[in-house]
Amino acid sequence: MKGTPVSVESVREVGPDTVAIELEAPAEFDAVPGQFVLLRAVPESDDQRDVDEDDVVMRHYTLSSPSVGETFEITVGIDPDGDLSPWLADLDGGETVHIEGPFGTITYERDCDVVAIAGGPGVGPAVAIAEAAHDAGHDAIVIYQDDEPAHVDRLEAIEDEGVDVRFVDEDADDELADAIATYHDDGQVYAFGFDDFVTVVASAIDDAGGDPDEALIENFG
Predict the structure, then answer these.
(1) Which pLDDT belongs to residue 48?
(2) Residue-by-residue DSSP string for 139-188
(3) What averages of pLDDT result for each successive group of 10 residues across the chain (221 residues)?
(4) Phi, psi of 148 (to 5 degrees)
(5) Domain ranges in the chain?
């Protein structure tokens, strides 16, 4: 199988239909918050090394850990009908998957204040960037739209340490726009989510007098 084999160190539930997967970091794996990896696996196969490439399932996952050491983390939303995510969620740890990367030009280098805006699974990279900024001594704000939020423990932990965290209900686009209008000038804007969400974010920035082209927006499709 193409890519670098890495061990699944742990899988833990971090919200409704959402798991965080800690993966072994390959040698010289140098990634920063905002970047993503391509994960390859053959669900239900006991041997991920010697497989038919036609059976390989591939998905991109953005890092949800604020740094990379011996391991790094991705956050996976579970689609019950999906080809890969249910299998990943059921792993016990110790299994092997293959990764390529890191990829992506949307990065956070711990060099400025940030406004991290997340919709649904975009919370993974958003909380990672907010944690990295806070750890580096910069201000951070998180705006997170989801009816069933994930990583609440991490968000509440950084909120207790002074990070502004705004939770917004799924259908409350006016409230989302108000939050963006309030905070968009308070740091470099990052936004992560599916197409409808990031379209609303870009429009809200524009309506608030900002420049959406200056925001770093990752569209999950």
Answers:
(1) 61
(2) -EEEEEE-SS-S-HHHHHHHHHTT-EEEEE-TT-HHHHHHHHHHHTTSSE
(3) 94 97 96 97 74 84 97 96 96 95 96 97 97 98 97 98 97 97 98 97 98 97 87
(4) -130, 75
(5) 4-103, 114-219
**How far, in Å, CA of 156 to CA of 139, rounded?**
16
Distance of CA 86 to the CA centre of its chain: 18
CA distance 169 to 150: 13
> Nearest 10 degrees: CA dihedral of 220, 7, 90, 65?
-40
Closest CA to 129 of 151, 97, 99, 100: 151
Q: What is the pLDDT of residue 217?
A: 98
| Segment holding 147, helix H or strand E | none
What was the pLDDT predicted at 204? 98
- Identify whether the C-beta of residue 132 lies closer than 8 Å to the C-beta of residue 84: no
Amino acid at residue number 108: Y
> What's the pLDDT score for residue 203?
98
CATH architecture of 114-219: 3-Layer(aba) Sandwich (3.40)
- What is residue 97's predicted lDDT score, i.e. its pLDDT? 96
Report which residue type is found at 117: I
Q: What is the predicted pLDDT for the residue at 1?
A: 79
Superfamily per CATH, domain 4-103 = Translation factors (2.40.30.10)
Residues 6+ away with beta carbon under 8 Å from 132: 32, 33, 66, 67, 108, 110
